[in-house]
Amino acid sequence: MPGNIAAPVVKNKKVLFKRYIDGNPKESDFEISTESTIKLQVPEGSNGVLLKNLYLSCDAYLCFLMQGSKSSMAETFEGFKLGEPIGGMGVSEVLDSKHPNFTKGDLVWGETLWEEYTYLPEVRALFKIQDHKDIPLSYYTGILGMSGLSAYGGFYEVCQPKEGERVFVSAASGAVGQLVGQFAKISGCYVVGSAGSKEKVELLKELGFDGAFNYKEENDLNAALKRYFPEGIDIDFENVGGKTLDAILPNMRMHGRISVCGMISQYNLEKRDPIQNAYWVLFKRLKMEGWAVLDYVHLYQKFIDFILPHVLEKRIKYVEDIVVGLEKGPYAFSALYTGSNFGKQVVKVFRD
Amino acid sequence: MPGNIAAPVVKNKKVLFKRYIDGNPKESDFEISTESTIKLQVPEGSNGVLLKNLYLSCDAYLCFLMQGSKSSMAETFEGFKLGEPIGGMGVSEVLDSKHPNFTKGDLVWGETLWEEYTYLPEVRALFKIQDHKDIPLSYYTGILGMSGLSAYGGFYEVCQPKEGERVFVSAASGAVGQLVGQFAKISGCYVVGSAGSKEKVELLKELGFDGAFNYKEENDLNAALKRYFPEGIDIDFENVGGKTLDAILPNMRMHGRISVCGMISQYNLEKRDPIQNAYWVLFKRLKMEGWAVLDYVHLYQKFIDFILPHVLEKRIKYVEDIVVGLEKGPYAFSALYTGSNFGKQVVKVFRD
User: Fold this and answer.
1) Which residue of B has its CA nearest to A260?
2) Given CB atoms, is B270 within the 8 Å cutoff of chain A?
3) Average pLDDT for chain B
4) B226: three-class secondary structure by DSSP
5) Does the distance separating the beta carbons of A262 and B283 come in below 8 Å?
6) Which residues from A are below 8 Å from B282, CB to CB?
7) Contact A300, A149 (CB under 8 A)
8) Looking at chain B from residue 61 to 80, which residues have their Cβ under 8 Å from any Cβ of chain A?
9) CB of A289 within 8 Å of any CB in chain B?
10) Of B235, B240, B226, the residue nearest B255 (C-alpha)
11) Do A287 and B287 touch (CB under 8 A)?
């Protein structure tokens, strides 16, 4: 009987959480462990799955799980444990399953840990991938996963864009921003993005943005916004926060909408930047709304039905920055906060 | 023929705009003129009306029309002219009309000027009052006018309150706040208000607020909010802004709503208070929305159908602070900014 064949025990490289962060995450806040082993089999009596991790998603929110008791999300989420592998979203292959929804050989995306093989004793958020030829599996860490759903929910649900409206996207070449810009064009909007390098600005233009600027070359962000939006901004898709948001507020048009997807400039500051221009929320009758992708999970199928034709017919492009090898994970993750990534940051663990 | 009877010419007292304000409006920014006269007749060829002003509404937004080119609303509204009477909303009697919708003897509410008699050459926003016995006419400056519609739109449309939710109202004894608190109770919410005197705090309790505090007696507003909202705030109806809003933000619950009706603490500052806690909009997934009563004009009849039974059956109370005589206008208007008014501030001009 197959049950008698002993499952192999293999080495299992891991990215361990080494210390609570002080400021933005750095490579030295992690440690690579190569000593562990894992038996590639779900134990008897478990409902779990055993995963081989193919791609891991680098997401900015993970820093909140590294801040210990100082985290603004300490009430909501349990943080990473020192000495344990960090976790997040990824694309994996099911090597063994005692869960009724999954079978050996399935490709899945969802929760996993930053290690080569992961045993999940309990499945909470794991979704089977319907394999599409021509679509890279890594896309399920981004455009077809949380980043895509974030762009979709945060733009269409929160902003209710109308044809001809003027859209600004900060951190516009990132995992979410590059999609929001392309969605804005599909909706007939004028869209301008900011990013942190000449290459990223070029990318935005290639993706169809009407304008793009390097915020590092602008001494006066307010003047830059006025240059691209002489008549003001209807929709701000906010990824940066702090001084960027403060410059945007007085440039908003009446009844403008600010969709707060992220405030990456503020996550790891000891003292956050003050906002001087909050009163424009009143005077310009703005709606400013914060949200999390969890708020839009119910829209996932609708989103997939919307985005797949665009992806398959190459009307929407998606730029990924893929590092190869789990040991590059700490570098790749830290890159989100220095801006040295170019597009959606992914770690490739295994994939032939 | 009646046309041959000469219309009387009478003295017409006025509140004139004397100087652009520097800081909050003061009595000395106005001047009372008693020298003008007016013929109580609409001129031939006009489509206008001639009004006898009964009650004038003191509204905080009027200060934006007194700030000259420094006004945050300079783009949107033309300010008052020096040496001319200020304008606003009021309740009036039609003494003469060449406008098809109005007849001599009609009672109306809407636009007028701060003078005893007003000739409006063009009617833009004037509404006939269906006379209800038992309802004071002055209510059309407040609960049955813009203040009531503001409370209704800003609470029900923006906040979508649900039974059991926790509501905070700042400047809660004011023209709008006292109504929002009572609407919150009608909707089955828990509601706490802040105000600036012991008497106002007592009033809020009499109006049915579950709790009320004098913000002047609280050294630490954050601590006060935590005392009344140990589990956080679902809905903030914001009238004050600045430091008050900054203390509220970290006390909001997940998916909370902040309806920005006003920011009276910020209107006349040279440099507005910075907001340190804007990032909670993201972390608590808040919706913060600014609006103006103009956004809800289409709901006026629906609002009246809602509020009239409550008023007639005395389930909702409304507290007015009425000064008698147009010459008291500058004092009454300035009182909004010192908080020395007690309830909706009204100026009674004529009424037997």
Assistant:
1) B282
2) no
3) 95
4) helix
5) no
6) 241, 260, 262-263, 290
7) yes
8) 72-73, 76
9) yes
10) B235
11) yes
Q: A180: buried, middle or exposed (CB in 10 Å: 19+, 13-18, 0-12)? A: buried
Q: Write the residue in A245, A282, A289 that is nearest to B290 by C-beta.
A: A282
Q: Within its chain, how far is the Cα of A340 from the centroid?
A: 15
Report yes or no: B2 and B91 within 8 Å, Cβ to Cβ: no
> How is domain A146-294 classified at the CATH fold level?
Rossmann fold (3.40.50)
Which chain A residues have a beta carbon less than 8 Å from that of B254?
76
pLDDT in tens, A267-319: 999 899 999 999 999 999 999 999 999 999 999 999 999 999 999 999 999 99
Cα A61 to Cα A43: distance, rounded to the nearest angstrom: 32
Q: What SS3 class is residue B107?
A: strand
Put simply, whether B264 touches A (Cβ < 8 Å) is no
Which ipTM was obtained for this model? Answer: 0.93
Which CATH number is correct for B2-142+318-348, 3.40.190.10, 3.30.1050.10, 1.10.1020.10, 3.90.180.10? 3.90.180.10
- Report DSSP letters for A309-334, one per residue: HHHHTTSS---EEEEESGGGHHHHHH
Across the interface, whether the CB atoms of B72 and A283 are under 8 A apart is answered yes
CATH number attached to the domain at B147-294: 3.40.50.720
Q: Say yes or no: B249 contacts chain A, CB-CB below 8 A.
A: no
**What is the separation, in whole angstroms, between the first and last Cα of chain A?**
30
For chain B, helix, strand, coil in percent to 5 are 30, 25, 40
Q: Do domains B2-142+318-348 and B147-294 have the same CATH topology?
A: no
Q: Is B256 on the interface with A (CB under 8 A)?
A: no
| A91, A54 Cβ separation under 8 angstroms | yes
Establish if A240 touches chain B: CB-CB under 8 angstroms. Answer: no
- Interval A61-116: pLDDT, tens: 999 999 988 887 777 778 999 999 999 999 999 999 999 999 999 999 999 999 99
Alpha-carbon span B130 to B132, nearest angstrom: 6
Judging contacts by C-beta atoms under 8 Å, the chain B residues touching residue A280 are 72, 290
Q: What is the DSSP letter of A284?
A: T
- Please state which CATH number belongs to domain A2-142+319-348: 3.90.180.10
- Mutation site, B282, B285, B286, interface A, largest A CB count within 10 A: B282
| Residues in chain B, pLDDT under 50 | 1
The answer, for B260 touching chain A at a CB cutoff of 8 Å, is yes
Structure tokens at B19: 């100087």
Query: Quick check: B9 contacting A, CB < 8 Å?
Result: no
- Residue pLDDT, tens place only, A19-64: 999 899 999 999 999 999 999 999 999 999 999 999 999 999 999 9
What span, in angstroms and rounded, lies between the C-alpha atoms of B122 and A156? 42
Q: Which residue among A274, A275, A279 places its CB closest to the CB of B266?
A: A279
Is residue B214 within 8 Å of B200, Cβ to Cβ? Answer: yes
> Residues B8-13: contacts with CB within 8 Å, 24+ apart?
B8/B39, B8/B40, B9/B37, B9/B38, B9/B39, B9/B40, B10/B37, B10/B38, B10/B40, B10/B117, B11/B36, B11/B37, B11/B116, B12/B36, B12/B37, B12/B38, B12/B115, B12/B116, B12/B117, B13/B115, B13/B116, B13/B326, B13/B327
Among A173, A234, A235, A162, residue whose Cα is nearest residue A205: A173
Interface test with chain B among A170, A243, A260, A263, by most B beta carbons within 10 Å: A260
pLDDT at residue A2 above 60? no
> Is there a contact between B281 and A275 if contact means CB atoms under 8 Å apart?
no
Interface test with B, best of A249, A282, A294, A295 (most B CBs within 10 A): A282
CA within 13 Å, CB half, B160? 6
Q: Where are the domains of chain B?
A: 2-142+318-348, 147-294
> Cα dist. A331→A29, A197, B25, B37 in Å?
10, 19, 58, 81
